[in-house]
């Protein structure tokens, strides 16, 4: 399985996840289920997954403005602003996530072209280490898998039935 196929798989899992989230009450999506200063509710994680893809692909790899800007959402000025989004509507967040996906798909050839070069990307502005473009692509995709697994667990803890997102269910034919 290559990068293209894995990103395509993620676009499928998103639709299944979004359908489940749309069927849940807003109060559950905003409820702080995880006791942490970071992502506490499902909406926090939805925003986090989308903004991480937006930031790495556009900000770091393509040197373009983030899709977030077109939503009038400023860069967060505190960890609290970065992490917490219970007041946003689910539709607003999913519209943003889908817009990030559309932009990623539109620029996919450029991302793959970059992955074939020996370019290195700073892992963090405060650290000297770097990543290859291919590693950044896989980091972002794996990051979504890890956090959507958390969302699935939260859906279950809130008394709902989560979707099956495993690769086998999407790849089987
Ligand atoms: Ni994360």
UniProtKB/TrEMBL annotation:
UniProt keywords, alphabetically: Metal-binding
Could you tell me the superkingdom of the organism this chain comes from?
Bacteria
Identify the Pfam families for this entry.
DinB
**Which SUPFAM superfamilies would you find in this protein's record?**
DinB/YfiT-like putative metalloenzymes (SSF109854)
Q: Which family does it belong to?
A: Belongs to the DinB family.
Under which name does UniProt file this protein? DUF664 domain-containing protein
């Amino acid at each position: 399985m290559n990068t293209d196929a894995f990103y395509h798989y993620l676009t499928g899992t998103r639709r299944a996840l979004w359908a489940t989230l749309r069927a849940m009450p807003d109060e559950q999506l905003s409820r702080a289920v995880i006791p942490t200063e970071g992502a506490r509710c499902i909406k926090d994680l939805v925003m986090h997954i989308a903004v991480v893809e937006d930031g790495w692909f556009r900000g770091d790899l393509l040197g373009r403005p983030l899709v977030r800007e077109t939503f009038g959402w400023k860069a967060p000025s505190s960890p609290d602003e970065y992490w917490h989004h219970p007041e946003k509507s689910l539709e607003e967040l999913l519209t943003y996530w889908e817009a990030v996906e559309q932009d990623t798909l539109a620029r996919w050839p450029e991302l793959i072209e970059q992955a074939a070069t020996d370019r290195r990307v700073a892992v963090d502005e405060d650290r000297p280490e770097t990543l290859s473009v291919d590693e950044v692509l896989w980091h972002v995709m794996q990051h979504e898998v890890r956090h959507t697994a958390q969302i699935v667990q939260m859906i279950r803890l809130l008394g709902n039935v989560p979707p099956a997102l495993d690769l086998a269910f999407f790849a089987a034919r």
